[in-house]
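Justification of resources, computational component.

The compute hours requested in this renewal are based largely on the per-chain cost of generating structure records like the one below. Each record pairs the submitted sequence with a full structure-token output. That output is archived, and it is also reused by downstream analysis tasks.
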Amino acid sequence: MAYEFIQGVHLRRTQERVEEIDALADLCGGRAGGVGALLADRRTPGRRRMRRSLPAGLKVAAAWRWETADNRTERWWPQGITTSADAFASTRLDGREVIAVSWYSKEVGGYGKGTRISFIDFLGRHYRHVLLVVPKMVDGRVELEPLHAHAGGIVWAGNHLYVAGTRKGIYAFRVDDLLRVPDDLHVADHAKVGRVGDRLATHGYRYVLPLRFAWQASADEGHEPLRYSFLSLDRTGRSGPELVAGEYGRRKQSTRLARFPLDPESWHLLEAEDGYSRPLLLDAQGERGMQGATVVDGTWYVTSSRGPAGLGSLYVGRPGNFREHRWALPIGPEDIAYVGENDTLWSVSEHPRRRWVFKVKRSSVPGPKC
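The structure output for this chain reads:
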């Protein structure tokens, strides 16, 4: 299929960290077996539970809250959301409905801890955190450091997990690279990360996911690079799957929305003849304060937050012609994802003590009449 790419902004893929990841896997005694094995693990400490909660927001159909420590923490802030319905045409992983949520760390006590992903077994109502790490080879020995990214949006596409890196572009992980730090290597000190002698410190986390490669954001001369504030996956397009991206913007900042074509076999961004990945759509008519956007059959669904006190809005329609559903969402809504099996929109809210994973029936939020 011939694509007509938009000129101006683009992404350039980096080399894969094959040697670094293989060395880290060898150190950990092999790969962990993927997300299914992670969620089936009942022995390793760190398994937590989700609980049903009273929904907040006029259009919220149902909501769930994290364990108390995760609900209240001032260090970790949830941002992005994706599901196994993004990853697989069957919508499930080994019979599980899986939700993944990204969190970024603020500095507390003089240091931050990077970025983590929570994988939730929705039917079993339990979850585990996974630390995102960057492996490096130093003098023939594998080292690691945490990935520092706002992670305002994530997409689980096939075997890949894509994480929004704002001005830096998009980080790419392969979920089969998931590693469990064995007991004899694990350093329990939550303040440390990296090699400690022959052992491995990971801010206390028992599972890590190493960075495989990235798409670095750049632009043609005279154009402003796109800020990848959030991401989602559109499986409903006629021309194939597309990665949806957009910018959070206030005041004079741009609020652009973009769509990039994906290869349906590799789930990588397609490249133009010049080797860059360029968008098929780049529209400057997004809404102020956008936190997330997804597309279903050509209709856009955009979340917007009003800070730590006001209920959030959901905009429905197309760039330049949105209908606002005010007070539709809980305080602090972030990224958004679509599950076609039950025609629902899923999101997550960020503020301490007001953190939910929640869903909205798409039929309850119609678009503009014209």
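Residues 9-364 form a domain with the Neuraminidase fold (CATH 2.120.10). The two ends are 31 Å apart (CA to CA).
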